[in-house]
Design goal:
Blueprint (H helix, E strand, L loop, with lengths): L10 H11 L2 H8 L7 E4 L16 E2 L11 E3 L9 E4 L3 H12 L3 E8 L9 E9 L2 E6 L4 H15 L5 E4 L2 H9 L9 E3 H8 L7 H9 L7 H4 L14 H28 L3 H21 L2 E2 L1 H26 L8 H11 L18 H7 L4 H20 L16 E3 L9 E3 L11 H4 L5 E2 L5 E8 L2 H10 L2 H8 L4 H10 L8 H15 L4 H8 L3 H14 L1 H17 L1 E3 L5 E3 L8 H37 L5 E6 L2 E7 L3 H13 L10 E6 L2 H4 L1
Parallel strand pairs: 4-7, 5-8, 8-9
Antiparallel strand pairs: 1-2, 1-3, 5-6, 6-7, 10-13, 11-12, 14-18, 14-19, 15-16, 17-18
Helix pairs in contact: 1-2, 3-4, 5-10, 6-9, 7-9, 10-23, 11-14, 13-14, 16-22, 16-23, 18-19, 18-21, 20-21, 21-22, 23-24
Length: 678
């Protein structure tokens, strides 16, 4: 019975394991907020405390199991670190602080708010830091008029273009302040984005960065507002005196991280990317997120009802063909019907629990054998479309603005592409007619506006032609020949005018498959052709496009020698597993080595275009707005009287974002909704 009793965890055994595996969050949940990944081997010359010392080194975490002798330095906290954090409450003190800040060429700042949603958050306070170990916190009340008076005082600092602003995820703070009439200006340095460029595959949160680079564990927010969940409070609920250290520490730690990351960016040839692409893009994305996009809720409600009827019909079709009614949402029951009752596959695979596998890949392989499987796939597709998009989007309309505001993430995809969440507007389905219908609900702000959609045409294929210098592919693009038709003609050894739709389809699959390292087996599965035929197509492809094969070999060799690959603009994708003994792991890294320079260059190109379009729109004082970025596409809400000028600006800035040999084609469409414009 004693063995079954709930007892305290064995800290002596668990703590070294959590430290070795860097389980910070789990460690704090088990042992409390005092837990940190607590022993670090410090490189000679590295800063060993939060304040003072050399700011340029790295903290390198080593396994506690390693026998190599090391200097062990405990992770510091605010309790054992010298600091001087000031509470700034009076008008006289604020004026004195503003005078100090105005004398500085760069400042670190942070906001304390009531929500992680910047478009709904209320400001609770501002914090500033200008030198290590010192910080200032300015609290504000819940009274909007009082808040505005204080915030207006700091406009002279925040809107000063001569003062560089340092922040951690600074887009959030810029967006929050914009709702208080503050247009933050000046050069930006975001420590989250800096670290993303330094080490894109790891985490970039401030707590993790502070432990790894400063050997310091910041105050946990859960100490102030409680653990995540419905009972979690907000910073408004916390006594001002308790917020001072937390808020000032944020600005201070961010400043010190900036001091470390700046020389690192220079060392890794990433300073230009930070200064000219990632940091300037913050202003663009903040504007897009604040603008949001208008959704026609009634259109979605009508479409939801239509989909519901179709879903019921497909469900009934399945029951009729199965000869039995069962729970379609149950993989167990579905497997029994398909494989025990209907005997669709005598070699059907089972999971570890003994039930049949009924995932999408399994059903797609069976779709040609039975209509019931097609109905099941349609049923699932419509259910997902309805629940994930059609029914969910109206619930995400901001009650304050009546619009949907997504959040764009710059520091998630290691390739450099943006991602989107809450909601993910980059994932609105486009491959099926039913999926495309969702775009009808994305409409202009009023009858005086129109939706413009600008899309890079085959941008990744143009980039692979550029960086591989493949003459046959470049020639096709320069002469304006459809690249898939040109590829089919080369591969099949026929005239361009003799290429049929099936040959073009095969060539298209190879063109895009090569970018993602597709094998003969993958191509055969994709095109439903014998593997031998797929091998012959790929072999002929490389024979006709030798530059592509040379690019792949050269890129792989470069990756093995250097441990990374680069985009045209110098963005690095680090490939730690490129020499792994594990073939599967190494193969994944090799595919990334081929793809990252292509996808990353396309990402850099559209980011530069966004920055330049945004800048030009400001210069021209246009009322039109950029509302969405969907990988290779930009969407605009355009005042009709500005339409022609906007088309001109968009095309010019997108085509000329990066000067290339290969011609860049941008297709611009217009309409009364996103579907019409695309």
């Amino acid at each position: 019975e004693e063995d079954l009793c709930l007892c305290e965890p064995n800290r002596e055994l668990l703590e070294p394991l959590f430290t070795e595996l860097e389980f910070r969050t789990l460690g704090r949940r088990v042992f409390g907020d005092e837990f940190s990944v607590g022993t670090a081997k410090i490189n000679e010359g590295t800063q060993t405390e939060l304040f003072g010392g050399n700011m340029g080194g790295d903290v390198v975490y080593k396994s506690l199991a390693e026998e190599e002798p090391a200097e062990v330095i405990p992770v510091k906290t605010i309790a054992d670190t010298d600091h001087n954090y000031h509470l700034v409450e009076t008008g006289e003190d604020r004026a004195a602080l503003i005078k100090i800040l105005l004398a500085e060429p760069r400042i670190s700042f942070d906001t304390e708010t009531t929500s992680t949603d910047a478009n709904m958050a209320e400001l609770v306070g501002l914090s500033f830091a200008i030198k290590a170990g010192e910080g200032y916190y300015i609290p504000v009340s819940a009274d909007r008029a009082e808040v505005q008076i204080i915030i207006d005082e700091f406009k002279v600092v925040l809107e000063n273009e001569a003062i560089e602003k340092i922040g951690q995820n600074i887009k959030y703070d810029i967006l929050v302040l914009s709702w208080y009439g503050v247009q933050v200006k000046g050069k930006l340095f975001d420590t989250m984005l800096a670290h993303y460029l330094i080490d894109p595959d790891t985490r970039h949160g401030m707590d993790v960065l502070a432990e790894n680079y400063l050997n310091y564990a910041p105050i946990s927010i859960t100490k102030l507002i409680g653990p995540k969940g419905k009972n979690q409070g907000t910073m408004r609920d916390v006594a001002i005196i308790d917020v001072v250290d937390y808020a000032a520490e944020d600005a201070d730690v961010t400043l010190q991280l900036a001091h470390i990351f700046e020389p690192k960016l220079i060392e890794l040839n990433a300073a230009k990317l930070a200064a000219e692409i990632e940091n300037p893009l913050v202003y663009v994305l903040a504007d897009i997120e604040k603008q949001g996009v208008r959704i026609d809720v009634e259109t979605l409600k009508t479409y939801s009802a239509e989909l519901e009827k179709e879903i019921i019909q497909f469900e009934q079709n399945v029951y009729d063909k199965a000869g039995v009614k069962f729970n379609l949402a149950s993989p167990k029951q579905l497997g029994e019907v398909l494989f025990d009752k209907l005997l669709l596959d005598p070699k059907a695979k089972k999971t570890k629990t003994g039930q049949y596998q009924t995932g999408e890949d399994v059903l797609l392989a069976l779709a040609h054998k039975s209509d019931i499987v097609k109905d099941i796939l349609d049923f699932r597709q419509l259910q997902k479309l309805k629940s994930t998009y059609v029914d969910a989007l109206p619930l995400m309309v901001n009650p304050k603005t009546g619009r949907v505001h997504t959040s764009y993430n710059q520091a998630v995809a290691a390739t450099g592409r943006l991602s989107s969440n809450n909601p993910n507007l980059q994932n609105i389905p486009i491959r099926t007619e039913r999926g495309r219908e969702v775009r009808k609900a994305f409409i202009p702000r009023d009858e005086n506006h129109i939706i413009l959609s600008a899309d890079y045409s085959q941008i990744e294929l143009r980039i692979i032609a550029e960086i591989s210098k493949e003459e046959n592919m470049l020639e096709a693009f320069i002469n304006g020949i459809d690249i898939h038709t040109a590829t089919a003609a080369k591969v099949y050894g026929i005239a361009i005018e003799d290429v049929d739709s099936n040959q073009r389809r095969n060539a298209k699959a190879v063109n895009f498959g090569i970018i993602y390292g597709q094998s003969a087996f993958g191509l055969s599965q994709n095109l439903n052709i014998p593997r031998k035929e797929a091998s012959e197509i790929i072999e002929q492809y490389f024979a006709q496009y030798p530059g592509i094969k040379r690019y792949m070999a050269d890129t792989m060799n470069f990756a093995r020698e250097n441990g990374f690959v680069e985009t045209i603009m110098g963005r690095r994708r680090y490939l730690r597993d490129i020499t792994s003994a594990n073939q599967t792991v190494r193969g994944y890294a090799e595919r990334n080595a081929i793809n990252a320079p292509i996808q990353g260059s396309a990402a850099d190109m559209i980011k530069i275009a966004m920055i330049n379009i945004h800048k030009k729109m400001k210069v021209e004082n246009l009322k039109s707005t950029m509302t969405m970025q969907v990988h290779d596409e930009l969407v605009f809400d355009v005042l009709k009287t500005e339409k022609e000028l906007m088309k001109e600006i968009i095309k010019d800035k997108m085509v000329n974002a990066i000067k290339l040999t290969v011609p860049i084609v941008v297709e611009v469409g217009e309409g009364n909704n996103w579907l019409e414009a695309h």
